[in-house]
Amino acid sequence: MNGPLKRAAVACLVMFGLLMLNVNYVQALKAESLSSDARNKRNFFDRYEVQRGRITAGGTILAQSVEQKKGDFRFIREYPDGKVFAHVTGYFSPESTSAIERSENGYLDSSHPDLLLRRSIDLFTGEPTRGANVEVTINPKAQKAAHEALSASGKRGAVVALNPKTGAILTMVSLPTYDPNVLSGTDPGKVFSAYNKLDKDKANGPLVNRAINRTYPPGSTYKVVTAAAFLEDDSSRDGQTIVPAPQVLDLPNTTADLPNSGGAACGGGQVPLVYALERSCNTPFGKIGMDLGYDRMAEQAKKFGVGEPLSIPMGVSDSNIGPKEDDAALAQASIGQRSNQMTPLEMAMIAAGIANDGKVMKPYLVQKITDAKNDTVDEAEPEELTEAVSADTAAKLRQMMVSVVNNGTANLAQIPGVEVGGKTGTAQTVQGKAPHAWFISFAPATDPQVAVAVIVESGSAGTEASGGHTAAPIAKAVMEAVLAK
After folding, report:
1. pLDDT tens-digit readout, 323-366
2. Greatest alpha-carbon span in the chain
3. Which of 156, 162, 206 is closest to 436 using CA atoms?
4. Which of 118, 203, 294, 415 has the smallest C-beta neighbourhood within 10 Å, fewest atoms?
5. DSSP letters for 406-470
6. Is the pLDDT of residue 372 over 90?
7. What is the DSSP letter of 28?
8. What does the alpha-carbon distance between residue 359 and residue 368 come to, in Å, rounded to a whole number?
C-alpha cells in the first residue's frame, strides 16, 4: 500500500514542479514575446484603460484623454488643434506613438518610476490611475502664426523658434502635416490604413519632422558662421574690415569657379565684411573659408553645436559641414553649399548663439511634468551647450545682421519699432530644380527674446523663391507673435 502512495506522491510532486517551471517560463522568459504578440488583444484594450496625462503649452491643451460613456474603450485620445501641433505632440495609435507621446510615454501613462509613490497612493485610496501632465515650451500664438504663414500657397518646409537665453523651443512647425486624431482612433484597420497612406507619401513626407529630422544645404545663412570664424581668428577685425570680393573666385583644381549670385559684382573687388554680408556675396566668404582652412572652419561649426548629439527629448538628426576635401569644396561649404547639411533647428541655434552673446543654449521642448495632483515631478533647467564665439565677436555679428535687415537682402523682416537681425539664404539643390529659401533671425537685437530659422523647400514657393522674399516674412510673423504683449 505504501508503494503506490509513494509513487503517486512523487508523480504529484513532479507534475507540481513541472507546473511551477512552466508558470515561471511563461511569466518570465516568455512574458515579453507574449505581450508583444499581435494576437494578444489584452494590451490593446489596456492602452485605453489609463487616463493619459495632458500635453499642454501656455495653458492651451494640445492633447488629452476623454472618458467615453459607452463602448469598449474607456479613454480616447484627442488633439483639439491636431494639425498645427502634430509634430510636437505626435500621435497615440493602437500600437505605437511618436514625438512627445512617445518620448514622455512613461510619464503620460503613469508607468515611469518617478510616479511610483503616486501610483501607490492611488492604489491605497482606490483612486483610478492617471498619467502625469507634460507642459511643453511651445508658444501657441507663435506656433499658429508659423503654421499659417508657412502653409500659405501650399509651401513645404519648417519653422523653428528658440528663446536664445534659455534654449526653450517656442515654435516647431513642419509642413506638410497630418491629423493625429486620425492615427489615434480605436479601429486598427482604419488607423493602419491612414498611417500607410501617409507613410507612402515619401515625396511630401507628412510624418517627417522637417524641423529636426531632415537636413538641407543652408545656403547663404551659413555665411554668419564663416564670418564668425573670420572675426574669431583676429580680434582686431570687425564689420568694416576690408575683404577681397572678386566677381568670380578662382577655385583650385577645377574649371567650375565660384561666382556671386547671378554673376554680379560685389562692390569694387574690395569691400567691408558687413557689405559682403548685406549683399550676400559668395566670393568673399568662399575665400575666407579657403584661407582659414577646413580644420578651423570645422572647429567653428562645432562650437555652434554642429555635430553635437541632441535630444529635445526627441532625437535630432546630425548636422555637418561635410568631409575634408580640397579647397574648392571648402569654398563651397563655406557659403552653405557642397556637402554642408543643416537641420532648421541647428540654424536656429546658430542665430540664437549670436543673439545670446556667443553662448548656445541646449534646446529643449519639455518645460515641466506634473502629476495628477498638479505636483511638480520634473522641471527643465536651462543648460549651456557651447560657447560659439566671444561676447565681442557676437556683438559684431549682431550689428552686421541688423545691417542685413536694415540695408541688405532682408528688408521684409523689418518690424516697426523693433531692431531685427537676420541673414537670408537661397540654397541650390540639384541642377534644374528650384532652390530652397532660408532665413535666420533674432529680435530685439539689443535684448533678444526670440531666434528663428525658416526653410521653404525647393519649388514649393515658385521657381524664383528667395530667402529675402519667401522665408523672411514668415520669420517676421513668428517674431511678432512672440514679442506681442
Report:
1. 999 999 999 999 999 999 999 999 999 999 999 999 999 999 99
2. 118
3. 156
4. 203
5. HHSTTGGG-BTTB--EEEEEEE--STTSPPEEEEEEEE-SSS--EEEEEEE-TTTT-TT--IIII
6. no
7. I
8. 24
CATH superfamily entry for domain 213-364+384-483 = DD-peptidase/beta-lactamase superfamily (3.40.710.10)
Q: Higher-confidence residue: 389 or 9?
A: 389
H/E stretch holding 377: strand 376-379
The catalytic residue among 65, 93, 151, 220 is: 220
**pLDDT per residue as tens digits for the range 347-356:** 999 999 999 9
Q: Domain ranges in the chain?
A: 213-364+384-483
For residue 104, what pLDDT is reported? Answer: 96
* Separation of alpha carbons 156 and 161, rounded Å: 17
258 against 462, higher pLDDT: 258
3-state class (DSSP) for residue 356: coil
Active site residue 184: no
Q: How many alpha carbons lie under 13 Å from residue 63 in its C-beta half-sphere?
A: 37
Q: Return the closest-CA partner of residue 223 out of 284, 299, 292, 307.
A: 284
The DSSP code sequence of 102-153 is: HHTHHHHTT-SGGGHHHHHHHHHHTPPPBPPEEEE---HHHHHHHHHHHHGG
Quick: pLDDT tens for 411-433: 999 999 999 999 999 988 877 67
